[in-house]
Sequence to fold (311 residues):
Amino acid sequence: MLDVRLGPLHLKNPVISASGCFGQGAEAATFFDPRRLGALLLKTITLNPRAGNPPPRIVETAGGIINSIGLPNKGIDRYLAETFPEVVGLADCLILNVAGERLEEWPRLAACIGDRAGIDALELNVSCPNVEQGGLPFARDPEVVARIVRGVARETPLPLIVKLAPEAPDLPAVAQAAAEAGAIAVSLINTIRALAVDWRARRPLLGYGFGGLSGPAIKPVALRLVHEVARAVAIPVIGIGGIQDADDVLEFMVAGASAVQVGTASLRDPLAMPRIIDELPERLAEAGVAHVRDLVGTLRFPPAPPAPGRP
Ligand SMILES: Cc1cc2nc3c(=O)[nH]c(=O)nc-3n(C[C@H](O)[C@H](O)[C@H](O)COP(=O)(O)O)c2cc1C
Fold:
């Protein structure tokens, strides 16, 4: 009733943890058995160690949160040596999320991972800033994204998922470029660039200044973008943005997603994902839907209104 396919990956249900919201190591197994998930997807790892951004790193806002964590991590070599052994075997499907800070770093990261046992796929966080382009995200440019995917695919046989940024001027074009370059799926959306202000102090509330908005506030934008991208590409789309319950999951699937990721909801309630998975069969049964796959891309718009002056 719940299993889904993402290219070569077969997930027992469509619910995946969103990167950065469910740990990077064994802490992902603190609250429930990650085998409950369709896939366990961990926080971004970069080639070199990063300290992350100055605090405060998260502020609350109406309908969501704004974060500027800054991808703190110990770098791929130490991650693979020290942390990765803890996470191997924790989940039925394990996806690592990686990000290069320069174009040439992407294949180097992929070469470190190679065909290491225990990893089922890589998610490429192309939403992160490209140091060489003055901090603009790689994800804005279809040609750059295609080069990243091809460069990574030369160094690792692992299936590649490209995580897209909502700020790309033409998101369907970026998704098409990722698909043509060999990605097995695209995931969207990453957070939306945002700002929180302390007007009395005339300062931003976050230590870094700008941040990324996530949570229920971004769900309608994410639904629109997932729908547009799903119509433009033949590979599966993974929907992300403000998912809090089973109805949210099914909205994304009707809009065109084959699976989903849950982020901010797990920060509020670490048991949100197993709760959502438990709710799904009941929602499907109520609607008389035999299998969750039957819903994917079934959204239909009403016929266009008649032209003015006609009956
Ligand atoms: C605190 C926090 C940290 C995040 N860290 C990452 C990260 O390391 N890599 C990444 O690709 N996305 C990261 N994200 C983005 C989420 O994976 C997700 O795309 C976004 O939050 C939208 O989903 P949501 O509304 O369910 O949270 C982070 C989000 C939050 C809230």
